[in-house]
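Predict fold of Extracellular solute-binding protein; 427 aa.
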Amino acid sequence: MIVSRRTFLTVSGGLALGASLPAAPAWAQQKNIRHFWWGNPERDRRTFAYIDWFQQAHPDIAVSGETIGWGDYWAKMATQTAGRNMADIVQMPYIYLHEYVQRGALVPLDDYLGNGFDVSFYDEGALDSGMVDGMLYGINIGATSQVIPYNQRVFDEAGVAFDRFGWTTDTFADACQKITDATGGAVTGSEDLSLYIENFEVWGRENGHDLYSKDGELQVTAEDVGSYWRFWTDMRKAGIIEGPDATVRVDKPMSDLGIVSGTTATTFRYANQAVAVQSLMQDPVGLAMVPRRAGMAYGQYILPSMYLSISRDAENIDAVLAYINDWVSSPDAIQVLGIDRGIPPSAMGRDALMPVLSDTEAKVVDYYAGIQGKVGPVPNPAPKGVGEVRDSFMRTGTDVVLGYVSPEDGAARFVEDATAILERARM
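Predicted 3D structure, encoded as tokens:
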């Protein structure tokens, strides 16, 4: 279900920041724009607060905010794209930006730089990843990296001490064993990450393979996939990670994660999502890098957590530009939005946040500083068809988790399927 501002304030009891601000008079709201994003409770709260703030600053613009979970977002986005009724402003991740540009769903922003919104204060190179074929299609609104959130209390009580910036898959497996033993199995060491292609991407890059080549072909091998699924299969058989029933619930809401419900001690996320995870928990959340296989290359990387893009269906361009400009350039707006979408890609934005960071947000900033020098380069752009490839990974991985196929045979099937998907997408 898409959640609108009205619905959000009803179910949240009006907890959004700035929700008590007086609405602009109806007669002043002459321009209407829509913003559509995938969200979580913390992100939705802050985004609707920004919308309130923006409408007070621009009484002639009415903003309709629409939010939905990650998995449903792409189904709805595909429907809106096909029906030519996309929201004016859409949230885009790095992995899908190229695909939606190729679909003709987004408009280039180059002509609006300095002529609608100002990003001249951005860090050097901060806009580069939002470019496709030499043109800018996405405004980077935050930097992030992969992370393993962990329950600090559970780790401490189990006597697990580790280097969160340097642990290995062996260290990780040992931690999972200690936690499962210490809790009598009430809490296992980790969520089973077999179906997380985002976590697998780090595994493949450790072996020098991006998910995709520069030409848009599958670059990871059956050996990469098979060894990844074998690792998690062995952990599952040892009983030190969650069981299959929980694992095969793909793209479940954050509130259903094992670390939130208290059944597992770790999960996989992106660093900017740590604030949302902590908001759903009582125990303190720690942040660690994805465990690396000993002697392998660094597979993690720093990426834009997401972009703001303008859809080809946008009509009130001046109002859309004002919305984006205030989002990235107003210190007050940046404070309202926080770091749920990542660390601002400008010194001005980071300076604006420092006085108002929560303890969890400060942990994210500390984590971001700690991974510098321990990450690899940004991967090759994702080609058209990545959504289907992701679905194939989860579908075949489910068969592996349920024991219908071996990790190695499942890997061969996935590589064959993914290769065919990408070939069709290039036609």
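The two ends are 34 Å apart (CA to CA).
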